[in-house]
């Protein structure tokens, strides 16, 4: 077994269980069973306990999404466009949802704001909000008909739709998407999201 294999298996298992049942419904015993780890002390040894394992799962997911969004924003900052900025925001979530294990990660990401605000710095919610404001600042010159408050509210609507997609609430009985559907599903979020942003001020 390669170094780090056991912690990675524990993280993968915890991520799946957290996405299905949330922290309250996820036990260390279930994580160990799903990960195929027989040592009952493994979670404590590698992570320090259940709370720290939950935080590690959250940050692994959130940090990955934020890194992709940062890269997209940096690329688009030279020549921003509305569709491109919405794409850069939603694509990491779609990629998670469409990538096997990643569909669980997408649900975990969608749940970070359910935590009390005092946990937002630790679980990445605060960093997500800060990056959202930077995306809003990048798109604002393209949407001069919207004041800052209206633009922020509409960006939150794009984010909420993406989160609904992440948890599967927009599937309407369709099977879970696969890797080949990333671009199709990104467009299904970008088209209405961009239309909402471009719509006349209310």
Automatic annotation (TrEMBL):
UniProt entry tagged with the keyword Electron transport: no
Cross-referenced PROSITE patterns: HTH_TETR_2
Top-rank taxon: Bacteria
Occurrences of domain HTH tetR-type (ranges): 4-64
Keywords associated with the record: DNA-binding, Transcription, Transcription regulation
PANTHER family per the UniProt record, alphabetical: HTH-TYPE TRANSCRIPTIONAL REGULATOR BETI, HTH-TYPE TRANSCRIPTIONAL REGULATOR RUTR
Protein name per the record: AcrR family transcriptional regulator
Lineage summary: Bacteria, Bacillati, Actinomycetota, Actinomycetes, Geodermatophilales
DNA-binding region, residue range(s): 27-46
Presence of the UniProt keyword Transcription in the record: yes
Molecular functions per Gene Ontology: DNA-binding transcription factor activity; transcription cis-regulatory region binding
């Amino acid at each position: 077994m390669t170094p780090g294999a056991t912690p990675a298996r524990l993280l993968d298992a915890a991520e799946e269980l957290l996405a299905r049942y949330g922290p309250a419904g996820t036990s260390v015993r279930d994580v160990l069973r799903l990960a195929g780890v027989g040592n009952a002390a493994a979670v404590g040894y590698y992570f320090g306990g259940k709370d720290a394992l939950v935080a590690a799962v959250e940050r692994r997911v959130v940090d990955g999404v934020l890194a992709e969004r940062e890269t997209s924003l940096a690329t688009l900052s030279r020549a921003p466009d509305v569709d491109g900025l919405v794409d850069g925001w939603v694509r990491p979530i779609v990629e998670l949802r469409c990538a096997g294990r990643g569909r669980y990660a997408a649900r975990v990401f969608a749940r970070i704001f359910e935590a009390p605000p005092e946990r937002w710095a630790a679980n990445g919610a605060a960093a997500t909000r800060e990056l959202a404001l930077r995306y809003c600042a990048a798109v604002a010159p393209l949407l001069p008909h919207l004041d800052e408050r209206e633009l922020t509210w509409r960006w939150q609507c794009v984010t909420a739709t993406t989160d609904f997609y992440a948890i599967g609430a927009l599937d309407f009985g369709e099977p879970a998407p696969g890797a080949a559907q990333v671009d199709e599903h990104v467009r299904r979020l970008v088209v209405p999201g961009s239309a909402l942003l471009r719509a006349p001020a209310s």
